[in-house]
């Protein structure tokens, strides 16, 4: 390929990149409060923009993971790391929208459904009893969550793009797993506390471990490099240990449920020959997970905080966090009943119930109490598009038409989406549960990518 062929493409890409970087620098300067840190903050924005521009799948991974951490060096002073990540990402996406088309009908339908929900969210700010916090939630969704899914719909459009995305996800989450376990060993968190990494919180950390494990399972099935499968199984063991010692019951239970769902989907979409290979893989994974907890001394497991929190689920008193979530749910349901059609407005749960709690830790109840039946209908439309994509993936092609990688990719994306939806019923708000929207976008675009 000659320089004359490459130059026009390079020029076409560099102009929007420089324009996006310039705007990103200007907006980032407004997000940083300490002058001495401004230069570093701007460099972070430019570097992130460069990554997104050059490797959009990796940029998508970094930005989706990075929005929740609050102890990244030089970013502590920024009012939410989300704003630094969102600036360059949003501007990059807006340029991409002008230059690319969404060829897949499902991708367009999913984007329109999400824009409809954004419109309802924006309207909710106008009559919110807490307009300040409502505006914050609107900004987080409009300039972080929405650009993430738009980038996924516009750039992750082929099998290789999906492989790149899950490879980046596996590598970064594996690094977080090692950081969390190492930190737990050094601080005594394995026995007396809950591990996490970079200040993301144990529950979020646990979710990342499940998504990382699913990504690794997919890579084991699609990367045929000698020794890679062995390394992948070892990584799965590390993910399981990290998820357990995060003390996040939703993550540990979700880990098991996700593996079961992944296995069932593989089984349903595989031929008899591929099923035999899958049973072998399942046996290896099962034996590995069982062996983990036979190697670790019993007292290290049963005497730790993680085990105690897990066993509380089988007792009448299930612990403060579980009991509190029932209280939040009751409060949100009561608010919904009081104003069921329009809700109390975006961000109103924080004012009506607790400024400290802010949201009911259930995405459906959050939407219902703040946006009412109108918001719930808009959210259900988003889920309906993702559900239609799931049905289409499961019935559109015969088993003989799908390769082993295709089957694993279908199972991975569907499982990641439904795991994220499961986790959204227990913890987090619209922003924390951006994975629902992101994997919904990947799910909507997958039928087109497999053509």
How far from one another are the termini?
28 Å
Largest sheet: none
Helices and strands, in order, run as: HHHHHHHHHHHHHHHHHHH
What is the overall pLDDT average? 75
Transmembrane segments: 14-32, 39-62, 82-98, 110-129, 141-158, 165-184, 204-220, 227-245, 251-268, 280-298, 371-395, 407-428
Membrane topology: Multi-pass membrane protein
Pfam families: Wzy_C (PF04932)
Main location: membrane
Structure in words:
The protein is an all-alpha fold. The protein has 2 domains: 12-99, no CATH class; 105-451, no CATH class. It is built from 19 helices and no strands. It has helices spanning 3-31, 35-54, 56-66, 81-99, 105-126, 131-155, 159-187, 189-192, 202-222, 228-245, 249-269, 272-295, 298-302, 305-311, 320-338, 348-352, 363-395, 404-423, 434-449. One of its GO terms (molecular function) is ligase activity. It comes from Aneurinibacillus thermoaerophilus. It is a multi-pass membrane protein.
At a glance:
This protein has 451 residues and is mainly alpha-helical. It contains 19 helices and no strands.
How are the SSEs placed, and which strands pair?
Elements: H1 3-31, H2 35-54, H3 56-66, H4 81-99, H5 105-126, H6 131-155, H7 159-187, H8 189-192, H9 202-222, H10 228-245, H11 249-269, H12 272-295, H13 298-302, H14 305-311, H15 320-338, H16 348-352, H17 363-395, H18 404-423, H19 434-449
Helix pairs in contact: 1-2, 1-4, 2-3, 2-4, 3-6, 3-7, 4-6, 5-6, 5-17, 5-19, 6-19, 7-9, 7-10, 9-10, 9-11, 9-18, 10-12, 11-18, 15-17, 17-19, 18-19
